[in-house]
């Protein structure tokens, strides 16, 4: 199943498959290997003068991690988003690896429009901060961050003491928070969830809007705490959720339908995430679903 506005069409995929199979004849290589070999000649075009990946360029494991692939230089190739989708689809068609088909399903929602939406959301969030003179654009914020990063009181507050307190807080504060989560919240964060963000609802934080307008749909994978879920949502739309996320449990418990522009669309049981994604596309044929940037790495589908 491929959406009409996906980054690649079924016709293109069939044409590419026929082409690589034809080029593979008499070489002893399969179609996937032939495709990868052709892309190895284009690596220099995918990095800048400093050798860093250009925007939109991704790392692809020639032999995926789920199939025993390593993070070695020999097993990594740089591909565009579209080439990455093609590579996993070809490997599935040629070698029949189910994991590659799963990776392909994860990426067919990464349409040009979806990628543009993500970049637009980040830019709009930055502009909101700039206009409101907050966070990075606030001199007060930067001054506080500067103080927080260094010693404030000689022997009474040395850098070593500061770092020790910071480590204790990061370790035990998090563990305590996770232990104190309700069973309902623990069950929710342990599963995947699909969320929708609305600029209209975000602008009317204290008012429940019926017409949310165009929404941004995002998939959040299994987490340890709701704070981790909130961090993922903030990665999709920076600064949409405040640091104190305690009140957002009302969404999980059904006490509120939307908060900070976000609403919960669906919960995906861990063992049924793939089916849940397919169901989402079936029910929302013309909608893009964004994924966390580290999703493929965590699932071994890079």
UniProtKB/TrEMBL annotation:
Highest taxon of source: Eukaryota
Keywords: Chloroplast, Endonuclease, Hydrolase, Nuclease, Plastid
Molecular function as annotated in GO: endonuclease activity
Keyword Chloroplast among UniProt keywords: yes
Protein name: Putative HNH homing endonuclease
UniProt lineage: Eukaryota, Viridiplantae, Chlorophyta, core chlorophytes, Chlorophyceae
